[in-house]
C-alpha cells in the first residue's frame, strides 16, 4: 500500500459519459492510468488520449506535472496533445474558411500549454503561422487568432526571436503603422514587437527604424486604453534597450512632442483609474528620464576644460555683473585674480582661489554646476537676490550658495534615486514630474531658495550647515510623500513646512516617544501587546481571505499574465488560479487550484525562494528579491511561488502565512501596526492623566490599620 501522499482521489469526465471517480496512484505510469480509464469507457487506442484539467487553463497532465494534482481535482479525458497538434496543423491549412478560423481559435487557446506547444512546434507549425502572416490574405478575427497563437507559442522560449524573417517582422510592423486595422490586431502586434525588442540588438534596430516615435505617440493618444497600454509598453522596451546616446535622442524628441504634458493631462488625470501596468510604465519613464542626469552626476569637473570653466565664470559674472564690467586694463593680473577669488568666496565656494576643486566630488559632480547655471540663467533675479543678500551678512551668518547647491544636488539625487536601475515591479511615480519640462532643474530652483529661507529661519552659522541641510532634506521628503500634482503645489507646501513646523513635528514625535518610555507606560504596553498582536493576526488572515492579484514575471520581461490567490473563510485551504486582466476579486469557486493549509510545511522569502535562484543576481532584480516568497507544501520540492505587487502586500501575506503555520509575524509592517495600535490604546488609557506627570516608581502602599473596627456590620442593620 503506497503512502497517502502518493494517492489522490480525483474525478475524470468525458463528453457523453458518466464521470469516473478514481484513486490516482502517483507511482503508476501515466500510460497505465490512461489505459485503465479508457478501458472503463471501452475506448480503444489509449495512446490517442490524454488527461487535462477541466477548469482554469486546462493544462495537459504529464509525468513532469502530475504531482501538482490535488485531492478533489476534476480532470477531463481529451485528445492527446500530439494528436491535437497534428489535427490543428492540418486545420489551419484548410481551404475552408470556417475550418481554418476554428482551428486558429483553438490553436490560440491550446498554445498556452507547454506540452501542446512543444508538439505543435515540432511539426514545424510556427512556419505555417509565419506563412499566414507573411501572405497577408487573412484579416480580422482570423488574423487576431493567428497573432495570439504566435505570441503564446513564443512565450515558451522553444524558438529564438532572432529566427523571425524580415518579411514577417515588416508585416507585424505594418499592422502597427496602418490606420485601418482592427484595434485587437494592433494590440497584439505591439505586444509582439515589445517581446522582440529586448532579445537582440538587431531586432531593436529594426523595430526602432520601422516604428517611429511619432507612430507610437499616435497610439498613445488613442481612446482605447489597451492600445494605449501596449504602445507605452513598446516605448518603454525601446528606451530600456537603447544605448545612452540613443536614449538621450529619444527623450529629447519626446520632450519636443510634449509627451509629458500629454501624459499628465490625458493619462494621469484621465477619468479612468490608472492601472497597475500603466503606473509601472510611468515609473520606468520617470526613472529613465531622471537617469539621463547620471552621466553628469558621476563626472568630476575638469579644470582644463574651457567649456566648464566658462560655465563657472558665468556664475560669477551674472552675480557681480556691474563689478565685472571694469575694463581689463584697469587692474593688474594679481589684483584681478584677487577680485575673482573674493567674488567666488561670496558665491559660497570653499576653495575660492580654485573653485573647480569644489566640483571635483562625484556625485554630484558637474550636475551641481549645471543646476547652478540653470538657476542663474532662468531665475536671474532670485539668483542675484540669494547671492547679494548673503554677501551683505556677517561672514559666519552667510548662507554659502555654491556649497549649498552642491549638497542639495546630492540630496535630490538620493531622494529621486538617480543612477539606480529601474525596478521590475515598482509603480511609485511623481505626478508632478510629468507636468513640467526640465523637472530636476526646476525642482532644484525651488529647493535652493528653500535652503536660503530655512537658513534665515534657523539663524544659522557656518557651523550649522549640516543641520540646515538635514532640515531641508526632511522638508523635501515630507512634502514629496504627499504626492503633489504640480511643482507649484510642491512649492506652496514645502514653503509652508517651515522650520518652526518641522520643530513642532519633531517635538510631537519626541514627546510621544518620552511618554511611551516611562516605566509604568512600558509595563502597560507589555500587558496590551498580546491582545493587539491577536488583532493584527486576525487582520492578516482577513486580508488573505479577501485575496490578492499577483503578476507572473519572467527573466525576459514584465508579464501581462495574472493570477489570484485567496484563503478560504474557514482558514483551511488556499485557493488560486489564473485570471484575466480587469478581474478585481474573482469568487473562490472560480479558482481551480488549491493547497490545504495542513499540507503547508514552511515559508521561504527572498533569496531562499526557488524562483529567485533561477533569475540572475543583477541589481535590477533586487526589488524582486524583496517581494518574493514561496510556500513549500507536501514535500520540499513542491512550491507555490509569489512575487508581491508591493512591499505592503508582501508584509501582509508573509505575516498571514506565518500565522497559518503557527509562527511569529516577522515583517516590518507588524511592528509598525503594533506601534500605531499601542500608541492609540495608550493615549486612550492615559487620557485622564493629561498634564499629570507619571512617576517612575509606584506610590508606596500605606501600612494596614491597627484594627478594622471602622467596618460597618450590615448584619445588625438587617435585624
From TrEMBL:
<keyword id="KW-0729">SH3-binding</keyword>
<dbReference type="InterPro" id="IPR011993">
    <property type="entry name" value="PH-like_dom_sf"/>
</dbReference>
<dbReference type="InterPro" id="IPR006816">
    <property type="entry name" value="ELMO_dom"/>
</dbReference>
<dbReference type="InterPro" id="IPR001849">
    <property type="entry name" value="PH_domain"/>
</dbReference>
<keyword id="KW-0053">Apoptosis</keyword>
<dbReference type="InterPro" id="IPR024574">
    <property type="entry name" value="ELMO_ARM"/>
</dbReference>
<dbReference type="Pfam" id="PF11841">
    <property type="entry name" value="ELMO_ARM"/>
</dbReference>
<protein>
    <submittedName>
        <fullName>ELMO3 protein</fullName>
    </submittedName>
</protein>
<keyword id="KW-0581">Phagocytosis</keyword>
<dbReference type="GO" id="GO:0006915">
    <property type="term" value="P:apoptotic process"/>
</dbReference>
<comment type="function">
    <text>Involved in cytoskeletal rearrangements required for phagocytosis of apoptotic cells and cell motility. Acts in association with DOCK1 and CRK. Was initially proposed to be required in complex with DOCK1 to activate Rac Rho small GTPases. May enhance the guanine nucleotide exchange factor (GEF) activity of DOCK1.</text>
</comment>
<dbReference type="InterPro" id="IPR050868">
    <property type="entry name" value="ELMO_domain-containing"/>
</dbReference>
<dbReference type="InterPro" id="IPR011989">
    <property type="entry name" value="ARM-like"/>
</dbReference>
<dbReference type="Pfam" id="PF16457">
    <property type="entry name" value="PH_12"/>
</dbReference>
<dbReference type="Pfam" id="PF04727">
    <property type="entry name" value="ELMO_CED12"/>
</dbReference>
<dbReference type="GO" id="GO:0007015">
    <property type="term" value="P:actin filament organization"/>
</dbReference>
<feature type="domain" description="ELMO">
    <location>
        <begin position="307"/>
        <end position="480"/>
    </location>
</feature>
<dbReference type="GO" id="GO:0048870">
    <property type="term" value="P:cell motility"/>
</dbReference>
<dbReference type="GO" id="GO:0017124">
    <property type="term" value="F:SH3 domain binding"/>
</dbReference>
<dbReference type="GO" id="GO:0006909">
    <property type="term" value="P:phagocytosis"/>
</dbReference>
<dbReference type="InterPro" id="IPR016024">
    <property type="entry name" value="ARM-type_fold"/>
</dbReference>
Amino acid at each position: 500500500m503506497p503512502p497517502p501522499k502518493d494517492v489522490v482521489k480525483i474525478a475524470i469526465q468525458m463528453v457523453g459519459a458518466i464521470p469516473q471517480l478514481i484513486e490516482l496512484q502517483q507511482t503508476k505510469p501515466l500510460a497505465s492510468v490512461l489505459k485503465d480509464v479508457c478501458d472503463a469507457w471501452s475506448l480503444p487506442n489509449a495512446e490517442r488520449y490524454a488527461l487535462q484539467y477541466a477548469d482554469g487553463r486546462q493544462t495537459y497532465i504529464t509525468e513532469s506535472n502530475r504531482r501538482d494534482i490535488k485531492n478533489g481535482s476534476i480532470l477531463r479525458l481529451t485528445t492527446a496533445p500530439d494528436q491535437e497538434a497534428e489535427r490543428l496543423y492540418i486545420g489551419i491549412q484548410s481551404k475552408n474558411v470556417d475550418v481554418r478560423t476554428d482551428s486558429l481559435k483553438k490553436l490560440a487557446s491550446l498554445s498556452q500549454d507547454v506540452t501542446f506547444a512543444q508538439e505543435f512546434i515540432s511539426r514545424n507549425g510556427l512556419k505555417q503561422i509565419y506563412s499566414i502572416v507573411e501572405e497577408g490574405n487573412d484579416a480580422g478575427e482570423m488574423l487576431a487568432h493567428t497573432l495570439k497563437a504566435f505570441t503564446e507559442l513564443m512565450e515558451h522560449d522553444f524558438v529564438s526571436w532572432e529566427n523571425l524573417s524580415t518579411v514577417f517582422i515588416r508585416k507585424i510592423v505594418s499592422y502597427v503603422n496602418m490606420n485601418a486595422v482592427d484595434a485587437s490586431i494592433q494590440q497584439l502586434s505591439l505586444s509582439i514587437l515589445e517581446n522582440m525588442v529586448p532579445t537582440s540588438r538587431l531586432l531593436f534596430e529594426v523595430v526602432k527604424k520601422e516604428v517611429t516615435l511619432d507612430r507610437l505617440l499616435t497610439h498613445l493618444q488613442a481612446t482605447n486604453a489597451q492600445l494605449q497600454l501596449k504602445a507605452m509598453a513598446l516605448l518603454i522596451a525601446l528606451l530600456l534597450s537603447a544605448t545612452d546616446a540613443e536614449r538621450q535622442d529619444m527623450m529629447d524628441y519626446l520632450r519636443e512632442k510634449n509627451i509629458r504634458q500629454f501624459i499628465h493631462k490625458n493619462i494621469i488625470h484621465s477619468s479612468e483609474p490608472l492601472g497597475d501596468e500603466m503606473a509601472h510604465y510611468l515609473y520606468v519613464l520617470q526613472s529613465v528620464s531622471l537617469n539621463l542626469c547620471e552621466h553628469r552626476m558621476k563626472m568630476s569637473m575638469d579644470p582644463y576644460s574651457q567649456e566648464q570653466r566658462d560655465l563657472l565664470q558665468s556664475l560669477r559674472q551674472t552675480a557681480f555683473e556691474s563689478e565685472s564690467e571694469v575694463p581689463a586694463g584697469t587692474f593688474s593680473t594679481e589684483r584681478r585674480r584677487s577680485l575673482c577669488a573674493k567674488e567666488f568666496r561670496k558665491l559660497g565656494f570653499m576653495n575660492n582661489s580654485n573653485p573647480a576643486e569644489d566640483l571635483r566630488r562625484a556625485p554630484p559632480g558637474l550636475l551641481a554646476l549645471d543646476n547652478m547655471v540653470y538657476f542663474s540663467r532662468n531665475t536671474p533675479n532670485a539668483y542675484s537676490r540669494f547671492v547679494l543678500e548673503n554677501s551683505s551678512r556677517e561672514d559666519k551668518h552667510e548662507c554659502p550658495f555654491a556649497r549649498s547647491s552642491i549638497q542639495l544636488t546630492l540630496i535630490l539625487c538620493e531622494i529621486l534615486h538617480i543612477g539606480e536601475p529601474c525596478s521590475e515591479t515598482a509603480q511609485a511615480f511623481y505626478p508632478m514630474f510629468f507636468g513640467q519640462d526640465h523637472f530636476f532643474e526646476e525642482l532644484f530652483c525651488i529647493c535652493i531658495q528653500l535652503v536660503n529661507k530655512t537658513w534665515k529661519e534657523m539663524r544659522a552659522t557656518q557651523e550649522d550647515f549640516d543641520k540646515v541641510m538635514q532640515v531641508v532634506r526632511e522638508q523635501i521628503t515630507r512634502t514629496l510623500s504627499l504626492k503633489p500634482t504640480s511643482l507649484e503645489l510642491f512649492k506652496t507646501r514645502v514653503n509652508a513646512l517651515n522650520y518652526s513646523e518641522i520643530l513642532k513635528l519633531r517635538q510631537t514625535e519626541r514627546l510621544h516617544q518620552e511618554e511611551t518610555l516611562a516605566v509604568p507606560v512600558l509595563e502597560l504596553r507589555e500587558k496590551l501587546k498580546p491582545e493587539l498582536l491577536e488583532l493584527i493576526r486576525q487582520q492578516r488572515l482577513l486580508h488573505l481571505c479577501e485575496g490578492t492579484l499577483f503578476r507572473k514575471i519572467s527573466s525576459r520581461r514584465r508579464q501581462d499574465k495574472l493570477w489570484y490567490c485567496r484563503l478560504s473563510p474557514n482558514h483551511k485551504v488556499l485557493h488560486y488560479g489564473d485570471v484575466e486582466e480587469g478581474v478585481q476579486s474573482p469568487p473562490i469557486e472560480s479558482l481551480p487550484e488549491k493547497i490545504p493549509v495542513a499540507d503547508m510545511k514552511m515559508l521561504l522569502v527572498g533569496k531562499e525562494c526557488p524562483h529567485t535562484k533561477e533569475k540572475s543576481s543583477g541589481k535590477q532584480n533586487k526589488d524582486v528579491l524583496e517581494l518574493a516568497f514561496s510556500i513549500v507544501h507536501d514535500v520540499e520540492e513542491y512550491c507555490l511561488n509569489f512575487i508581491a505587487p508591493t512591499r505592503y502586500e508582501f508584509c501582509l501575506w508573509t505575516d498571514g502565512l506565518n500565522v497559518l503555520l503557527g509562527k511569529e509575524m516577522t515583517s516590518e509592517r507588524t511592528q509598525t501596526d503594533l506601534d500605531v495600535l499601542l500608541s492609540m490604546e495608550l493615549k486612550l488609557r492615559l487620557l485622564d492623566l493629561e498634564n499629570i506627570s507619571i512617576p517612575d516608581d509606584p506610590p508606596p502602599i500605606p501600612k494596614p490599620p491597627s484594627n478594622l473596627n471602622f467596618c460597618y456590620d450590615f448584619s445588625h442593620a438587617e435585624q
